[in-house]
Give the backbone structure.
Amino acid sequence: NAGVTQTPKFQVLKTGQSMTLQCAQDMNHNSMYWYRQDPGMGLRLIYYSASEGTTDKGEVPNGYNVSRLNKREFSLRLESAAPSQTSVYFCASTLTGRAFFGQGTRLTVV
Amino acid sequence: GENVEQHPSTLSVQEGDSAVIKCTYSDSASNYFPWYKQELGKRPQLIIDIRSNVGEKKDQRIAVTLNKTAKHFSLHITETQPEDSAVYFCAAPSNFGNEKLTFGTGTRLTIIP
């Protein structure tokens, strides 16, 4: 039982490049989330998915897209990376409100 | 949607003293209130939570209290230790069916030896 697994752990992109952050959970949770955390800041919701096949925008969705491929997987895509997207990204899933987080992806856009 | 406010943003306490962090929420339908601890460079982890049918919950040195009338809940850490130094986040779900979580802005707690 691995919980929530995110890949990659670290990534450096050039401005304009694209990439997909992968997230998978093996706890059979319905809800999954993507957050970003800037240095010294809180967790800001990018997108969330209440169930397979549904996604909704959070607080800061601009510049991102998501795919809820199945119940286990929820990916986050940056189509054209910008320096403002430099951050730590956390995937999470919830059961009855209790959130379990992945280990995070530290993304730097240069 | 839910609006969660957390205070203070930073807190320094002497080792052995108590620390209290407070959060207020806006959605009166919210009925679940967790607290997360994030150590430097790590992921947030749940440390305690409370549901709206109780007013207080305790787990060793940590406790959470809830005032549904005033729409606020608090984290209490007693007999603080250096390993309690971390950032603490409160959260509230805006819709229990969706479980969409809104987090507070975090409190950086520093324990002074």
Summary: The interface with chain A takes residues 32, 34, 36, 43-46, 49, 89, 91, 93, 96-106, 108 of chain B (CB under 8 Å). Residues 89 and 106 of chain B are 5 Å apart (CA to CA).
